[in-house]
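3.2 Worked example (two chains)
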Amino acid sequence: MGVILIISLILSFLYFKKGAPVTPKQKAYRNKLLSKIHQSPRYRSVYANDRDLWESFLQNAYGVHSSADLLISELENLSAYLSGKASVLIADPSRRSEREGKATKAQIAKIETMWSKVARDKSDMALRNFIHRQVKSRPLHLYHLTQAEATVIIVSLVAMHKEGGAA
């Protein structure tokens, strides 16, 4: 019984931390904003055909990889920006500390490249196990790593590459 309570508390914490809607009205409003964003002329002409450009735009403006990860206030601002009603993008300051220090795309690319060179088992799970041995955390996605953790992993991978060893 206690385990179930702990799991439900953890899940509810993750649910609210992500900025997910709490009520059905908020969920409907959020979906309406997402639809409005993806149907805007600016999105369709610039970002709809280039997923990487859209992700880098969101990363630079808000520190997320998907518009689904934005808070409602950020969705409102993004919608206004894409429709031409706002000239400035404003990230919610309450999430700023959550985003600071995340691994950069270059670090993630370096980790993936070096891993493919030095690993015997090139699977994602093997990479996660290696990361866990190095920094004592097992991220679901590499972009959840901090810059410091990514640096430790890169240094380890480069050393392995120089030694010619495999993980």
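3.2.1 Second chain
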Amino acid sequence: MKQNALQQVSRLLLILLSGLFANAATGHGGVSADGDLCVINIDFLQAYFTVFQPETSDSQEYCEDIPAVARSVFVMEYLHTFLKEMAVDFRIIRDVNDVGQYAKWEDIAAIEDLEAATVYYESPRVEPGGYYRASYAFDTKGTYIGIVTAEHPSEDRVYNAVFYFQVGGAEWGTIPIFIALLVLLQLGYWLSNGGFTKIKLRIAANRRSS
């Protein structure tokens, strides 16, 4: 009975870990993977999305998470021609409320002092060529939220995208705790199933046969 319980808990932890890594692989919030490319969803409007760090990694492209604490260039290539007529702005804020990868527009609206949380803001501009570029030199490792806002050219409508990202390497959070618990549970299952005794018997048998 005890062994079955240990097995069930181990399986549950494996499922939770798989879910955490799967979420990390499929993108955060408004940015998602489309094959080898990243797409940002500004409501129903889409653009290819890429981040470069020219001083540290030359032409290497990143989808969201950025490895180095350095200047980062954010590039959008509009897929909807309607975006070429819109004034688009870009804001980067610290994840002050720890909403993480599930950040959405309602979380941004709930921040009491958005300006205080903002580390970078690029005012609205129209890019008729369909390419939007913004650059910011990060000086602190941590978790951030990017916000893209597009204004309808003739109506009182605003479209937005919100995406969470990390700078300076991944923040593992509670994942190491899950892994440690899984190892301990597997060890407990092995011991309760006579694993140590079986090894002692095998060693004794080898000695007798030699």
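3.3 Remarks
Strands lie at 31-34, 37-42, 45-52, 61-62, 71-78, 87-94, 118-126, 131-137, 142-151, 158-167.
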